[in-house]
Amino acid sequence: MATTSSVPKYPTGGAGGVKPPASYGNRSFFARNPSALIFIACLAVFTLVVTLASEAYGGGFLSTSFVKTLGKTLCLSLVALAMDLIWGYAGILSLGHMAFFALGGYMIGMWLMYARTEEIVVTALSQGGLPATPEEVTQGIANQIFGVVGSSDLPAIWSFAYSLPLQLSLALAVPGLLALVFGWLAFRSRVTGVYLSILTQAMTLALALYLFQNDSGLRGNNGLSGLQNLPGLGQTSQDLVSIWFFWASALALGLGYLTLAWVVSGKFGSVIRAIRDDEARVRFLGYPVEVYKLFLFTLTALIAALAGVLYYPQAGIINPAELAPIASIYLAVWVAIGGRGRLYGAVIGAAFVSLLSSLFTSGRLPDIRLGPLPLNWVDWWLVILGLAFVAVTLFAPKGIGGLFDRFLRIATPDRKGAPLGPDDGSLQEQEAQQ
Amino acid sequence: MTALLEVSGVSVTFDGFRAINNLSFSIGEAELRAIIGPNGAGKTTFMDIVTGKTRPDAGSVTFGTRSLSLLGLNEAQIAREGVGRKFQRPTVFEDQTVEANLILALKAPRGPWRVLFWTPKPADMARVKALAAEVGLADHLHRKSGELSHGQKQWLEIAMLLAQEPRLLLVDEPAAGMTPAEREQTTALLVNLARTRAVVVVEHDMDFVRRLNCRVTVLHEGAVLAEGSLDHVTRDPQVIAVYLGRG
Amino acid sequence: MRLTALFVAALFWLAPSPSLAQEAAAIVAENRDQIEKPSRQTIGPVIAALAASGDTMADDILSAWADKRLVIRKADDALLIAGPDGDGFILRNLDGSEAGAAEKADLTELKPNAGVRGLIAAALVQFTLSDPDPMRRGAALTSIARDPQPETLDALRASIPSETDPALKTQKERLGRFLTLRFDPDPSARVAAIESLGADTSLDTRAALNPLVATTRIATAGEPAGNIARPLSLGRDLTQAEAYALLVAADLAPARLTLEEQRAVLVANIVNGAVGGIPVDELNTQAARDRAYTALEAAGTVPTAATDDEAKAALAAHRFFDAYVETDPSVTAAALAALTSIDRKVGLMQAADLGLDALSLAAIYFLAAIGLAITFGVMGVINMAHGEFITIGAYTGFVVQQLVPDYTLSILIALPLAFAVTFAAGVAMERLVIRHLYKRPLETLLATFGISIALQQILKNVFGTQARPLTAPGWLDGALEFNDVVSISYIRIAIFVLALLFLCFFLYLMKRTRLGLEVRAVTQNPAMAASMGINPDRINMLTFGLGSGIAGIAGVAIGLYAKVTSEMGADYIVQSFMTVVVGGVGNVWGTLAGATMIGSLQKVIEFLNPSNTLAAQTYMILFIILFIQFRPRGIIALRGRAAGD
């Protein structure tokens, strides 16, 4: 490679001399990223505590439904990580990642529903005197699943639903391909900044509207249901299943965190942050900016899809409302409140806000009386969330993660007179107009 | 003399305004060239065309010994072919350390996979240190570049350009905002650089151009008005009329 | 059909001979047996005679008969007309004279069957068609047109010459042509009637012609009989299963065994855990079940069912056709020709109607988007709460209607009030939030998202989740109808006019007023504008207020034709952004072009796929994503240096 061969041939002008070893690349990954180690330790302790407090393996202090909520929260944190990578690090405010999340859920949901229905149909048919033929089973499954939308044919997109490995690979392939095609179209025509955000939002809306139709092949607005019942595990208690999924989610989150921490810690992370701050300059350095964006967009879509695969068996039901544009906006809200541009910020934001959200919308909190007006938390939670979000954007753009900085006294660099955290928008706007 | 960059018959129109009008220009493998011209003469647009930011309506731009056409390439591809550009305003990545900035610029594979699995070898780190030392930033390697002074950012950017090892260097008003001592240093650096590669300097400052002591191309209304030594072009009555006459 | 012809011939024969008229009562007396036990086959001449008698009582007798009010008094076996009177009946003789009253038990009602009642009704038509009251004549025409019967044709024809009302006369002639082309026994008369229609595109013409070209599917072994429309080829025009079902229906082949029946038969014949010698456990494939069934057939336990081979042979031995129900080829040919030319004309008109629809949808998108075009295009500020401003405008209209019951007045109050409310909301938002974020568009996007979420929930808390009506004034009800195909509702016209007004207002404001000049100055170069004494803060505030205010007015307009809910604005936000982006940012003509394009596109897609408006939106968004590939800056793009300034 040419890098090593070129020896400095210019007279050294300034002060020089050998300095202590550079921090770049010479030390181990964890030494360079202490936060990753702390995070993994916290996650491990959390998993242990939840396991010991669960109904399946411990004291039963935590109800099974709460274990599911915690498991789902871990999955949401994983999507938030993906969102942080693409938005916090690379400056691409995608409003479409919950669509990839839901698509992953739909794909695994197809297998769950198909296999579960198959069990029921085979049992029912064998009681009729004769063992069922494959045709009868298929027809019975189609009737069971699609009767609700007035159809009795299994659509072609269900061709692989019988097989877990095939459907699992589809759960990654379909969102991944969608991200690849959409990203290619969007990035090659250099759609950036708010335009890209709106375009991704339109993509999400188009997908949601499509799935809302009854003849979409995915049961219209009924969505897929009964996903918490794992095929072949009909006798296993949900107490056990919930803790298994909790473990799987924790494992996925831990691995996802480590992978992304590794991705952003090296030169790649340096390149994508550079793209966020001044993508034109990165281009003049010779980096194919569009390829990087596409790579990130697809990678994060795959992570989102994986999170969806783990989330929806815990949620039990998926319908097109799950990929309404507002879901992706909430994702951005979580990451912003947690703190963009730092991975633990995304996790904290997603966990904090989604748990608060389920607390406030559960209806278990007592109303507060403000004079004559009863203040119902279910009704007013979204108002509080919306206004809190405005406040965070205005006064604390670094989110909750910013508190850590204050605690650790990390100085904020002066960035072109805009000290309020990373925002490429103005720069990209300028460039878009040039 | 074989030309490294050959621009011929290039025209660009913005909403009816001809920014570049049938411009032809060429520069050799190891040559220093200054481009001067009044405001709106098309200097920046010329650099935009060479670096792929602007597509010309007509004409051809070829580069290198293989006479590769630059017209079908995007900015990143042209940069990888060996065309470096320094902007008027220093643009370094202020959120990242001086070291990270230099590593970004180091000549190395640019694709995402290769970058993802790239780890610095000792030689790379040595080169980074040498470059930093050369521009007087050896003590600042681990500082965020946003904390540097304006002049230091200029030097960092120059160091990044050197790290890219371009064959053709386009420099936009390098002397702007520099102290006289720094100008001196910049002049020396540019002259030194031009021994091994082509360097095109766009500059307003006549003193600075005089010190570069090189061929000068005068642009006016998007076309070449005169070319030659500074003394030659400053005697040209046309140049005096459109440019020096005003100043 | 032949019977009808006979009957009509009889009428023809009788009708022009009033001199032969008898008293109705006499005719009834003469044919008493037939009238008491009428049959459709033979009663025709009697009814015809009655109708042609010229006696005014004939009408009453026939109506009473049809209404089951013609009764026999059990006491004296007299045939009388009964009229209800409380629990009993008032009776009249057939010549109209009073005949006292009676209880229901004293009477036997004549109950003609439906076929006979049809004949009676047809005969009655001629009385109503010649009724002195034009209203009744009109009503009779309407009822004939609704349910055309062959029997009415001659009555209708007969009534034309004596018709005095010119409008009714035209109507009668027109209806006469429709009946002729369907029911006239003479094919050439029918063809002439079809051709006389020309390319009249009205719905009733098409309704009259369509039955003539209706087809049925037939299967035959040899040459087909009847008026064949086209031969059908297996696999392309109809599936094997459909074709076989046709054969079964025509008794040309035995029915096939369905899988369920086969299963039931097999279950019924399980002997010692096996069917036909095949163990039950092995019957888990169709092939095994077929083998078991064949074994049962061979043993004679079950009836033979058509096998696959037999079915194939039967299909091969027959041909399948679409045949016209109408038997006369000249009539179907003429009807086809007429329909083709009508279709062509209707197609053009549908295109025109589609154009009108598209224009009105474009007007709505334009209204929804123009406020956004100001804040996004002119100021570069992304206002995701724009949709909620639309909603606020609509709810303002709703509240005003609660206070001011007069709809016209309330709309006139609501429009400026909605502007004022959303203007204030916009200014407040600009002052409190947006002005701190001018250099950071993505953060503006986020902050206004937050406001959007909060506003939407507040509106939901205040006004509830159910849709609230915003009623348009009465003079906006109905539609402007050009003909059966092309029409547009007045509300949509009003919205269109409103959109035009806003376009003019906006152009005037930007190009002709001091404010517009200052807005353009601040947009292009805030620093320079400030140095010339323009206060950019004030201009930004006013511009944002203006954009928001227009959203409020758009809300009232949209609320007039759609239900007002807290989510209605959110439904328009993506479309509005698309309109602005597709049209080209920073240019009101671009917004207009974008709205026109998106509106037309949506209508065209809906037209091509009318069952599914959701799919239409999906395809539209996909199209827009692709469109941006080719024109990233929109339809009307500012290029080069001008765009950067």
The CATH superfamily of the largest domain in chain B is known as: P-loop containing nucleotide triphosphate hydrolases
Number of domains of chain A: 1
Tell me the strand order in the biggest sheet of chain B. 6-7-8-3-9-10
How many distinct helices of chain A?
A: 17
CATH class category name of the largest domain in chain B: Alpha Beta
Specify the structural class of chain B.
alpha/beta
**CATH architecture term of the largest domain in chain B:** 3-Layer(aba) Sandwich
From the N-terminal CA to the C-terminal CA of chain A, the straight-line distance is 36 Å
Mean pLDDT of chain B: 86
Q: Which series of helices and strands of chain B comes N to C?
A: EEEHEEHEHHHHEHEHEEHH
For the CA atoms, what is the radius of gyration of chain A? 25 Å
Largest sheet of chain A: 2 strands, antiparallel
Average the pLDDT over all residues of chain A and give the rounded result: 83
Structure, described:
The complex is a heterotrimer of chains A (434), B (247) and C (645). Chain A has 434 residues and is mainly alpha-helical. Chain A has one domain. Chain A contains 17 helices and four strands. In chain A, the strands form two sheets. A two-stranded antiparallel sheet of chain A has the order 1-2. In chain A, a hairpin with a 2-residue loop joins β3 and β4. In chain A, α7 packs antiparallel against α12. The two termini of chain A are 36 Å apart. The N terminus and C terminus of chain A are likely disordered. Chain B is an alpha/beta fold and 247 residues long. Chain B has two domains: 133 residues, 3-Layer(aba) Sandwich (Rossmann fold), CATH 3.40.50.300; 83 residues, P-loop containing nucleotide triphosphate hydrolases (Rossmann fold, 3-Layer(aba) Sandwich), CATH 3.40.50.300. Helices cover 37% and strands 26% of the residues of chain B. Chain B contains ten helices and ten strands. In chain B, the strands form two sheets. Chain B has a six-stranded mixed sheet, sandwiched between helices. In chain B, strands 2-1-4-5 form a four-stranded antiparallel sheet, with helices on one face. In chain B, a hairpin with a 4-residue loop joins β4 and β5. The two termini of chain B are 35 Å apart. The model of chain B has no long low-confidence stretch (mean pLDDT 86). Chain C folds into four domains: 186 residues, no CATH class; 52 residues, no CATH class; 48 residues, no CATH class; 215 residues, no CATH class. In chain C, α18 runs antiparallel to α23. The longest helix of chain C is centred in the middle third of the chain and has 50 residues. With 645 residues, chain C is an alpha+beta fold. In chain C, strands 4-3-2-1-5 form a five-stranded antiparallel sheet. A three-stranded antiparallel sheet of chain C has the order 6-10-7. Chain C is extended and about 110 Å long. The C terminus of chain C is likely disordered. Chains in contact: A-B, A-C, B-C. At the A-C interface, α6, α7, α8, α13 and α15 of A face α13, α19, α24 and α26 of C.
